[in-house]
């Protein structure tokens, strides 16, 4: 049998011409299947890219834990009890789970949007979300440092009253091109020195929300705002 069998090819072309409708639908089915495969692959890739951009450089193996009120009675205790993590829980995780590379307890106060202007500088006032963080948090969910620096270990150890502000905070609290590093802002009546300015690596609303935040050392927030040894999440 030769590679090019003229009789075979003539028979194939004759069959195709004789059954034009079936040939059309068969060809259309093959085309449609390939087209839908390309669409689904493109949509999947686009969705993956969109989610990745929305999350910025958030560590893909990270997890977050927080507490809520209890929903069922337990050993004589009523439902609706409130439980909070504390510093001992953080240390217990470090001691018992050596597989954890980074652990970063957080606190949050004065969320923006509560109609409570909690940040003041001169004649300017605004409401922003204040986060209490450890340096390791910037390794889990990093931001771009535009000016100055992020929180460091000495800030934690010495409970320094410093803050790292988002770009939207900078825009509202400072003049254009004004140098913010070393300047002071007042948060709920307490003065903090600006050590850095950051911008979010996320996009859209997530970036806007993150750029409206202020980071301060976790230990500073615990002491300044009377959280004791409580951990938010």
What does this entry look like structurally?
With 233 residues, this protein is an alpha+beta fold. It has two domains: 7-55; 105-231, no CATH class. It is 39% helix and 20% strand. The chain has eight helices and eleven strands. Strands 2, 3, 4, 5, 6, 7, 8, 9 and 10 form a nine-stranded mixed beta sheet that branches. Strand 3 (119-121) and strand 4 (124-126) form a beta hairpin. The chain is elongated and about 95 Å long. It starts with 5 loop residues before the first helix and ends with a strand.
Keywords:
2 domains, elongated, alpha+beta, 9-stranded mixed sheet, two-stranded antiparallel ribbon, 11 strands, 233 residues
The helicity comes to 25-40%
What is the averaged pLDDT score? 85
Query: Could you name the ranges where pLDDT drops below 50 across 5 or more consecutive residues?
Result: none
Number of strands: 11
Main beta sheet, described? 9 strands, mixed
User: What is the succession of H and E elements?
Assistant: HHEHEEEEHEHEHEEHEHE
Which structural category do the helix and sheet elements fall into?
alpha+beta
Intertermini distance: 75 Å
Anisotropy-based shape:
elongated
Compute the number of structural domains: 2
Gist of the model:
With 233 residues, the chain is α+β, with helices and mostly antiparallel strands. It has helices at 6-18, 20-55, 87-96, 137-140, 153-158, 167-173, 204-211, 218-224; strands spanning 85-86, 107-109, 119-121, 124-126, 129-133, 144-148, 162-166, 184-187, 190-199, 213-217, 230-231.
